[in-house]
Design the sequence.
């Protein structure tokens, strides 16, 4: 009985300590990105203590940890933000050249699923600008592209 209570206590402790914030070290040694895995909020943190908002919360009242993830691209300034529940995607860029160079733009704003489970992952293709988005529960796939050249070069299509 004591072992059962210990295991139960450990499981509750793990649930309460789910990771809400995750730090991503960028290729620029003076900057990290801080992601709120519940809300999707992303901040650029500089080694001198400055903090800049890259992406505001997409789901501000979410209570589920590990809903969002950042994926590094081959461009050192660009990351892809993925909502692992819905398949929504954003291109997030940090910068050391000023706040006007920091941005977050939509790649996919359509919900591809309406259940609250982690099901979407992304995988890079041979082009540094293109990735696969996969629903790991159903096997459905999309191809998408990010770009620094404007919205007309950002797209997603079902395969």
Sequence:
């Amino acid at each position: 009985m004591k072992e059962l209570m210990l295991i139960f206590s450990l499981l509750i402790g793990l649930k309460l300590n789910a990771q809400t914030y995750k730090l991503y070290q960028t290729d620029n040694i003076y900057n990290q990105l801080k992601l709120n895995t519940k809300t999707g909020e992303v901040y650029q943190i500089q080694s001198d203590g400055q903090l800049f908002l890259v992406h505001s919360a997409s789901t501000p009242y979410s209570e589920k940890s590990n809903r969002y993830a950042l994926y590094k691209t081959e461009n050192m300034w660009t990351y892809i933000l993925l909502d692992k529940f819905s398949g929504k995607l954003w291109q997030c860029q940090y910068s050391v050249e000023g706040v006007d160079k920091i941005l977050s733009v939509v790649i996919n704003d359509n919900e591809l699923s309406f259940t609250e489970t982690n099901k979407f992952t992304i995988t890079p293709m041979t082009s540094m600008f293109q990735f696969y988005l996969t629903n790991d529960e159903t096997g459905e796939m999309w191809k998408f592209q990010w770009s620094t050249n404007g919205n007309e070069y950002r797209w997603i299509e079902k395969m």
Residues 4-16 have pLDDT under 50 and may be disordered.
